[in-house]
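Pasting two entries for a bug report.
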Amino acid sequence: MNNHNPIGLFDSGIGGTSIWSEIHILLPNEDTIYLADSKNAPYGQKSKEEIILVSIKNTEYLLNQNCKIIVVACNTATTNAIKELRAKYDVPFIGIEPAIKPAALHSKKHIIGILATKGTLNSDLFYQTTEKFQDTKIIEQIGHGLVPLIENGEINSPEINALLHRYLQPMINANIDYLVLGCSHYPYLIPQIKKILPNTIQIIDSGEAVARQTKKILQDSLGLNTQPNKGKTLFYTNSNPKVLENILKNKYSVVVKDF
């Protein structure tokens, strides 16, 4: 491995592009490779064993592309598989977890909400995190149906809007002051979420923190890419590329691969 090798990212589809975008903004000279494992989405409905297996498959594909660091740009894969990935491979891994800590520390009401997948909310890692903040009431909500609709490109659909109203209203009634988005797909729903929530409720996700951690790990180990030109990005999907292309606003080409 050397500092010119690419950063690899994977997610259960297009959601992790919200993480890729933050990394690309912070580290514009880095080459990146992104895997959209849409064929297996959503991970949140799979068993822990299944999540580990698809995470291993994605990791090995990225390592075969000489990636110097792997960003698990999926909350569900991080909370269920990153321990096994770190034990199996001699490469740095960056995970993405729901931003419970900053929300709990900044909450003045000590009441926060989290919208996440079943796989994330049921994981041991999520339980261990929430146990540290017993003075904060955490309203948990599984975002049933949101990821498939986002993967189908129905971000602004009436179905998405109806689900968001159903999931967020109990949190509003509970008087939360922070909403944690616990899935990398959900930042694409922020415009709709803001229309539903009172402006006194802050929305928080993990994208910027993941980008900062990626930069720190690279600086402390292999070093940053010192090439003078802007980094190149390859996007791979094992499903229909149209939604991914739309999310990327057709600024990047998407290659269809079976991985």
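Entry 2 (this is the one that rendered wrong in the viewer):
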Amino acid sequence: MTAVKTTETAAPAGDIPPALPPAVTGGARKRRRRGGAFDRALPYLLIAPALIAILWLIGFPVVSVFVTSFRRLNLGELVRGQIVWTGLDNYATVLQDERFWTVSLRTVVFTVAVVGVSVGSGLLIALLMRKLSGWVRVALQVTMLCAWAMPILASATVYIWMFDQNYGILNKTLVQLGFEQFNGHSWFGSGASTLAVVGLLIVWQAIPFLAFSLYAGVLGVPRDLYEAAGIDGATGWQTFRAVTWPEIKSLLMMVTFLSTLWDFKVFAQIWVFKEGGPSGESTTLAVLQYLEGIAKSHFGVAAAISVLMMIILGLITFQYLRRLLQTEEGKI
């Protein structure tokens, strides 16, 4: 009987690592999970201080104005530190005042006129800069930069002297040209003419930003499209409508929206010229808010006017965002 001897070849002990205890592997997985969650939360933790600071600097004044609009906060309450809640009385006072509706309508008409002229002029200058030669374009750009860099009060003072009734260069020039009716003509004798001069100043200050912004958009239009339009025999207007307009439409919408926000609440230029006069005929909502809050110390009423202005601007912002989302860029 033959005995069969079986031999088992065992692998060296170093080739197979010893099994780790379950506690060790479980702890490693927990550490990995904790590390992954921390890595995902790290960007938010890093941006949190800046976000909190921005919300505090922007959100706190808005909340404060909103709360103040429900209080009777005149000079007496402010000195005594007294808090008197009046509910919607401030809003009722504002909305029942006929002057508020007159001023609101005037503000809307003024804003539409100024924004339309400034955006249209900026677009025309942007298209013009594309056609000008190098040195002429540089001279125009430097001129616009100088106008843009001029402080508001300084430029308003220059305009006041230009349109002065007795010493203004405009009246003197018109008289020299044969228009004798402008001898001693008062450009600030009515609210309409005062707002016209103020609007001219605002347009002059706004054109550089609008022209440079739209010029950047025009430069972004591929030249091949213009060449193709020229080969097809398109006129200048047809080229603008078929090539330039679709490319700069979103940019034009954005600068129009920004101009509307800025011009709707303009204050310094109107106040420097006639302080809302004569007889309050050039008063806008921003000036009315100042008159109620600072001049009359009716801070609650002024806060209510501010909230109503924010509501109007919020509606404008909503319309802008709705139109933006309808475009192809907004959908992307």
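Dev reply: Rendering is fixed now. As a check, the viewer should reflect this: The CA atoms of residues 144 and 208 lie 5 Å apart.
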